[in-house]
């Protein structure tokens, strides 16, 4: 099995490529540290929604629906307000239709490569971003922190290791998600109707007309029960839905089965992600986004127990870490 890691290009943008046997992946450090592709070259599978050459300018302007964007802080914040530890910070209102802040700052920022290489069983790359008073986002959330992402590629698929460190001297919020964009179909010769998605959802949060949680739950529909239990067509209806995560057999994950190809793509995200968003672009066939989140949308302004909604902070010098894996079974 050939295993290698090297610097190259992805549609003209600087990338680090990983190869391990039939798998290959590429990350774009300069565009949000986005893992932009994960492929099985032997079978022609393209698991992630990739931007083509004609989409690169739009992708760079709004890198939210391709690859695995990092959202920090994730999703929506009412009127851009972010109350934390006795202070209220003000994020830019960048979603005019809801008058909310959306998706944070890291998915559009330039990250740096710490190292890349290969060993006997895997190729790997580590990228990081360091936020301090010199970073543009510091004016909105004045905390000092470092986020590191390590991706490795091997026979067991794609592994992601995430590490957040509080570099500052005060308690900082640790709110994060991935806007992971999964192709359906990912296999050549298959159609979207060959696919069924299963997700470890618990309760569905009720959302206001501004797409903000009311603090109440809605009863799951029969389709959502199928989504939880046996799986259903990913584009059965428009979805921009928010759920609690409810691990099954100790695992918190999405499973996407291609009945024609006879394979299942597993996205195992770890139990630290207590919430899911699932978005399917208005039920437009082609890709959808199962988004693991640490926290509830708008968590700092929701009057519910912090542990229930994933609202927590890191003390000075503290780390937070979680791992995920995408593989085929």
Structural write-up:
With 329 residues, the protein is mainly beta. It is built from 2 helices and 27 strands. It has helices spanning 56-61, 222-229, and strands spanning 3-10, 13-20, 23-28, 34-40, 45-46, 70-71, 76-78, 81-84, 87-90, 100-102, 112-118, 122-131, 145-154, 157-166, 172-173, 177-178, 182-184, 195-199, 201-207, 213-218, 240-245, 253-258, 263-268, 275-279, 286-293, 313-314, 319-328. The strands form 7 sheets. An 8-stranded antiparallel β-sheet has the order 11-12-13-14-27-23-22-18. The mean pLDDT is 96.
Produce the secondary structure layout.
Blueprint: E1 3-10, E2 13-20, E3 23-28, E4 34-40, E5 45-46, H1 56-61, E6 70-71, E7 76-78, E8 81-84, E9 87-90, E10 100-102, E11 112-118, E12 122-131, E13 145-154, E14 157-166, E15 172-173, E16 177-178, E17 182-184, E18 195-199, E19 201-207, E20 213-218, H2 222-229, E21 240-245, E22 253-258, E23 263-268, E24 275-279, E25 286-293, E26 313-314, E27 319-328
Antiparallel strand pairs: 1-2, 2-3, 3-4, 4-5, 6-16, 7-10, 8-9, 11-12, 12-13, 13-14, 14-27, 15-26, 17-25, 18-22, 19-20, 19-21, 21-24, 22-23, 23-27, 24-25
Pfam families: Aldose_epim
Protein name: Aldose epimerase
Organism: Paenibacillus helianthi
Would you kindly provide a brief summary of this structure?
The chain contains two helices and 27 strands. The chain is mainly β and 329 residues long.
Q: Beta-sheet strand percentage?
A: over 45%
Side by side, the strands of the main sheet go 11-12-13-14-27-23-22-18
Order of helices and strands: EEEEEHEEEEEEEEEEEEEEEHEEEEEEE
**For the CA atoms, what is the radius of gyration?**
19 Å
The helix/strand class is mainly beta
- State the share of residues found in helices, binned by percent: under 10%
- The overall pLDDT average reads 96
Number of strands: 27
Largest sheet: 8 strands, antiparallel
Question: If helices are DSSP runs of H or I spanning 4 or more residues, what is the number of helices?
Answer: 2
Q: In one word, what is the shape?
A: globular
State the distance separating the first and last CA atoms: 19 Å
Low-confidence stretches: none
InterPro entries: Aldose_1/G6P_1-epimerase, Gal_mutarotase_sf_dom, GH-type_carb-bd
Pfam families: Aldose_epim (PF01263)
Protein name: Aldose epimerase
Organism: Paenibacillus helianthi
């Amino acid at each position: 099995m050939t295993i290698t890691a090297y610097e190259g290009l992805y549609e003209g943008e600087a990338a680090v490529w990983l190869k391990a046997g039939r798998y290959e992946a590429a990350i774009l450090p300069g565009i949000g540290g986005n893992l932009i592709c994960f492929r099985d070259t032997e079978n022609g599978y393209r698991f992630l929604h990739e931007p083509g050459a004609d989409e690169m300018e739009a992708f760079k302007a709004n890198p939210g629906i391709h690859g695995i964007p990092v959202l920090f802080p994730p999703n929506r914040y009412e009127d851009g307000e972010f109350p934390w530890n006795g202070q209220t910070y003000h994020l830019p209102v960048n979603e005019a239709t809801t008058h909310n802040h959306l998706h944070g700052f890291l998915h559009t920022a330039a990250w740096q490569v710490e190292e890349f290489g290969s060993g006997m069983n895997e190729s790997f790359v580590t990228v990081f971003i360091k936020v301090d008073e010199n970073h543009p986002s510091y004016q909105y959330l004045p905390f000092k922190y470092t986020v590191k992402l390590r991706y490795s590629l091997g026979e067991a698929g794609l592994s992601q290791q995430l590490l957040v460190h509080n570099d500052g001297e005060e308690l900082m919020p640790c709110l994060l998600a991935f806007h992971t964009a999964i192709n359906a179909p990912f296999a050549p010769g298959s159609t979207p109707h060959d696919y069924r998605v299963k997700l470890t959802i618990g309760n569905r949060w009720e959302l206001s007309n501004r797409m903000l949680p009311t603090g109440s739950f809605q009863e799951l529909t029969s389709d959502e029960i199928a989504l939880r239990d046996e799986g259903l067509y990913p584009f059965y209806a428009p979805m921009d839905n928010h759920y609690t995560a409810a691990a099954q057999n100790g695992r918190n994950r999405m499973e996407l089965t291609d009945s024609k190809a006879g394979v299942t793509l597993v996205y195992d995200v770890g139990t630290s992600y207590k919430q899911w968003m699932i978005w399917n672009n208005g039920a437009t066939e082609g890709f959808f986004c199962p988004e693991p989140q640490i926290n509830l949308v708008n968590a700092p302004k929701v009057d519910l127990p912090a542990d229930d909604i994933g609202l927590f902070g890191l003390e000075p010098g503290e780390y937070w870490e979680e791992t995920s894996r995408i593989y085929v079974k």
